[in-house]
Amino acid sequence: MRMYKAVSKTMVAAIIVLIVAVAAIAAIVFLRQPAPTAAGQTTITKTITTTVTQAAPTGGVIKIRVWASGSPVDVTRVDNVERAAAILNGILAAAGTNVRIEVEKQFFRKDYMDKLTAAFAAKEAPDIIAMKNLPELVEGGYVIALDDYINKYKILLEDVYPALWNSVKYKGKIWALPQDTEARPLYFRKDVLRKLGWSEEEINALPEKIKRGEITLLDLIEVAKQAKQAGLVEWGFYHRPNFGGTPFLILYYQYGGIAQDPETGKLVLVKSAALKTLQILYRMAQVDKVLPPDMIGTEWRKIHSDFVNGRVLFWFGGTWHWAEWQKVPYHEELGNLTEEYEWENIGFALVPAPEPGLKPLTLSSPYLYYVTSQSKYPEIAFLLIVFATSPPLDARHAIDSAHLPVRMTTVNEPYYAKSKFHKEVAYMLEYTSFEPLHLKYGAYKDAWINAIAKVERGEATPEQALDEMIQILKANIGDEIIIKD
Fold first, then answer.
1. DSSP 8-state class, residue 158
2. Which of 472, 458, 448 is nearest to 250 (CA)?
3. E strands along 176-302, which residues?
4. Mind listing the pLDDT tens digit for each residue in 286-341?
5. Which of 25, 195, 312, 376 shows the greatest Cβ crowding within 10 Å of its Cβ?
6. Angle between helices 76-94 and 38-55 (to 10 degrees)
């Protein structure tokens, strides 16, 4: 990955202007609010300068430490904070101050939480951390609420996708900024559809018809049956081998389920929606036989290999898989796929409405930037994560790490726009949903996956599996679970 140790004065100035400009665009286009005036832009610049100089009234260097983890391509989670410091230093220099921000960064591949816990115990925690685990971090006192800062600097955050704020709210407060996100599309094999007699026009129209609700999951089950009966594929559908929200939580939401009570924060199971979810999975595996009954627990490599090699028609995957197929040699003849091969043979769409009258959906699980409770400069740390997610840097992370942006205006960035896949898939964030934020969500998922595995294997009817799931939830979650009809 190309790394930048410094940002030129020209780039700094351009980014500063762009940050304010995108806020103005977002305010007009998306929020229908007045764009910030020149005076407003001057005010926010003065506010930023005052905030920093008050932290170091005699000048000098303010050191901010940032920690993050992930795969090698996710290193921009720390690099972008360093770039954000260059932006902030540009503002400070333009204002004639003698204060500078210096970022110390660490990126971990494993044992991240252990190191973080040890750092907090030693009173040596970083100022900024990038990770998920929001309930655990809040309940453990590791991070601070950001509501006051968000209100103070809202002009710089107007273009964050509105739905993403739901991923950082917990117990009535906002605890983080979305750092990156993704969507969970339904991938399909164009080459198989061609062999079934579909025209290019019909294939290309499929995502839009799914988006409009004109084609449902029930329709695609019939297509999968045709493809299997014709010997074109071994299976019509594959889904994840674990819970992961896809397509299980999506289906549950589509059938009217909710997973968390907005008032109490307790986990929720809506029996009618859960039953319909189990029923359609039972139908796919045991009645129509378009889904393997032993899907739960299948090795990830087999899943990717079977889809990439055209043995499966539909795959409930993630947007990041598009890049993974180009980097991991799953194909038995080609090895790593080229993007040209993907565009020719693989399509993607929202998860279809299960049946007529319902809505298509996807699901996101954003990575988050937090300001820690041990930071000596929490407001400066906050400004850094704001700038680290500004459109130019948001675009760099999204493209380099195969994620989707957190800012609506990032899709217009040249660096982002050069990726056809990223530009075309970004609309899915307008249809996204999220997993609940709760300390016992793990037990909730375990109960779900146990029920799903049993109905798909034919070891229990959907009704029996639901009854058992309710018993497990009550036993393992107690009064933190609400069961609704």
1. T
2. 448
3. 177-180, 186-189, 235-238, 267-270
4. 999 999 999 999 999 999 999 999 999 999 999 999 999 999 999 999 999 999 99
5. 312
6. 100
Tell me if 233 sits within 8 A of 254, measured CB to CB.
Answer: no
327-336 long-range Cβ contacts below 8 angstroms, 24+ apart:
328/304, 330/301, 330/304, 330/305, 331/305, 332/305
Q: Which residue has the tokens 């850094």?
A: 384
Tell me the β-bridge partners of 369: 130, 177
Task: Output 41-49 pairs: Cβ under 8 A, ≥24 positions apart.
Answer: 44/20, 44/153, 44/155, 44/156, 45/16, 45/91, 45/95, 46/95, 47/152, 47/153, 48/88, 48/91, 48/383, 49/91, 49/92, 49/95, 49/97
Record the tokens describing residue 14, joined without a space: 């351009």
Structure tokens at 224: 């999968």
Where in the chain are all domains bearing CATH 3.40.190.10? Answer: 9-182+365-431, 186-363+440-484
SS (H, E, C) 433-456: CECCCCCCHHHHHHHHHHHHHHHH
Per-residue pLDDT reduced to its tens digit, 152-209: 999 999 999 999 999 999 999 999 999 999 999 999 999 999 999 999 999 999 999 9
Quick check: 15 and 386 in contact, CB under 8 A?
no
- The token duo for 135 is 């309930």
The CATH number of the domain covering residues in 186-363+440-484: 3.40.190.10
Reported pTM: 0.87
Per the CATH hierarchy, to which homologous superfamily does domain 9-182+365-431 belong?
Periplasmic binding protein-like II (3.40.190.10)
Spatial separation of the C-alpha atoms in residues 211 and 418, rounded to whole Å = 24
